[in-house]
Amino acid sequence: MIRAHFVTDEEGFIRAVSLKGHADFTDEGIDPLCAAVTGMVTLVANTLTEVLRLDCEIKAEEDGEFSLRVPHSARESAKVTLLGLKVQLQDYQVQYPENLRVTVQD
Question: What predicted TM-score, i.e. pTM, was given to this entire model?
């Protein structure tokens, strides 16, 4: 199961996100849910760092573990991009409840 965890600050801004695990929807390497989540996370990371030029802390491990932390100074600029990721992952969670779990910590 992929576990996505979002951390928000006191004003509701997403300040961090982490993902761990594999979807186990089908065989590793050809799993469409893993591919979709990986693509979304890569798009978000590249948008924040390469397009918006935000100084985010990003860690991506070969085992599928990913984390992203947004500095306080960049939270307004990152808001819409990270909200879009959260909404899409929550939509996938509805479709694939056995393969993806999204949690939000206030």
Answer: 0.92
